[in-house]
Amino acid sequence: MTGDHQTLALLLFSVFVAVTLAITTWVSRNRHGSAEEFYAGGRLFSPMENGFAIAGDYMSAASFLGISGLIALFGYDGMLYSVGFLVAWLVVLFLVAELVRNCGRFTLADVVAARMNERPVRIAAGTSSVTVSVLYLVAQMVGAGSLVALLLGGTDEAAQTWTVIGVGALMVIYVSLGGMRATTWIQIVKAVMLLGGTIALTVLVLVRFHGDFDQLLLSAAERSGHGEKFLAPGLKYGGDWTARFDFISLGLALVLGTAGLPHILSRFYTVPTARAARRSVVWSIGLIGGFYLMTIVLGFGAAAIVGPEAVRGSNAAGNTAVPLLALDLGGGADSTGGTVLFAIVAAVAFATILAVVAGITLASSASVAHDLYASLRRRDAKPRSEVAVARVAAVGIGVVAIALGLLARDLNVAFLVGLAFAVAASANLPVLLYSLFWRGFTTRGAVWAVYGGLIPAMVLVLLSPVVSGSPESLFPGVDFQYFPLQNPGLVSIPLGFVAGWLGTVTSAEVADEAKHAETEVRSLTGAGAA
Amino acid sequence: MQSSNGRPRGGRGGPESAAENHDGFDPALLETPAAVRYDDPWYDALASGWGESTGAGAGAAVPLSAVEAGSTERVNAAADVYLQVQRSAAFQEVRSRYRRFVVPAFIGFFCWYVGYVVAATTAPGLMARPVAGAVNVAMVAGLGQFLTTFLLTWAYARHARLRRDRAALELRWDTQELTRGIRGGAS
Fold first, then answer.
1. Can you tell me the ipTM of this complex?
2. Overall number of domains in chain A
3. Which of A232, A460, B53, B112 is the most exposed place for a label (fewest CB within 10 A)?
4. Alpha-carbon separation of residue A523 from A381, A527, B23, B88, B172 (angstroms)
5. Contacting residues of A for B136, CB less than 8 Å apart
């Protein structure tokens, strides 16, 4: 990439950083410092604002660059991701959004702990929430580092290191100073930028093909060199049965994991009522669905216009397909239009990563302060303001994420995201659904459901080919690979549900009928909701 | 039933519970004649909604005078409110309306999605069959997933708006009245 691209992209990105810092300052100018304010932005956002913010939280750079790139390289198999990421929202809409809004205050653990012996349940749910958040965070940090290297040509390690540190520092500033209100506005600004950029590119692709989608598909198939196979499943996941089961496992993790992601759950607390939570999910389904439909056009467009060889030549994983497409659509590498479009795409991708990272950091600092610190601190210790603890936790999580992001630099970003979804689906979803819908669910069942999903998921990853036993592993030199799949979801999600059931039927404790009645009445009517 | 008609409802996406109103305080209630219900909330809760409550629910009612006896009993009474509401016909109606929509819809889309993923990984031949031009079965199925997601979202939102929201809101006020009645009576 030439110097022009870099300068303009850096300029646009600096503008975004300046605007978001201004928002943070403006929002925090007369903050009250209450927990309500810090975790939930005062619960005063409108459904439309929250819908945009949810979409901003969810559409990561992995989808913007990663999915389009996978479609450009493997055709139809990349599209399977788009479908899974969207369909997952039906689980959220039907079973989670309204009920969680009504029952909880700030975190996932609030919903579960209301019915149970509070301390062990909070510690379990808090631990799994933080684990999921950190995994997701590391994925985004690794993505930020490699994105800079790719887009700005700075392939040296120093540029990558400083990007990770810079992103981490910015997110800590946003979160610890601005809390939920600043984070939400950053998500909204980012969602508008991302959708605007995507719409512009999609229109340009369709104009190039005179609005003929059929022609676009045919050109993509022809240019790919695979012919009709490019438009049917099987190029990436059609190999042996291990690859196929791996994909089914990933598909299951995607569709069930979204409802267990802490940073998505915490967004429902920023609106006043369950009805507003439902309407914000409807908004976000519209926005996210439109976005993923456009990534399909962009992916096939990149295959047809740029060509898979050029994409693969720039980045083997396909992450640069959209920037290359923008360069071409603007009029080529030496034209002003190409330079501007490329810079916009690069700036949008940075903004995306920054906003997603801020959202996750806020959710995990809430889990640390509201669940873990509140349950684990010594009883005789002086109680500190929970918000102060949350601010410190945001700094701590930022440091951990920077360190892990630098260590995990060479891991595949899509794999890390898939892993975070698998852990969320195994550890968080069973306990959430059981406590909302099962009358006889007990404390032991809740604790077992969390650890029964969390521990198998993590152990299976350690034993998988990702960590050892193959040339692409984290430790290629050793071999303790006993589990063939990269994504543990197919095994660990059912284990989480079974463990919760087993814990409940073996416990001597009888479920408190009144507490269940309270949860059920509150979840469906909103009585006594915070 | 007439006591609940005076209340404004619908379109209240506003900051109705923005404050930390854990005790269920709602200013709208004070502006309306509904405040009359304060006198005998037990009776009113059972009479509102879809009419008759179950016999068990009525039998478990705790007289307010007994509630004032001690703090333990006060807690028990607060818990009883929820049991009471849970057993009421109005709540059971809301719950069954919710479940009658969500359970079949969830099973339907989940099977459709899993079927799609399994078909894409195990039967690429079927998925590659052409439909029209460059569009094949796989493309139709993929875009169909998008379409069904949008349709189900619309159907769910419509169902909840028309069939559940109003009843749930009434139950919410009634329940909060009851819990407040107990706390207020004891203080």
1. 0.90
2. 1
3. B112
4. 34, 8, 17, 16, 10
5. 228, 231-232
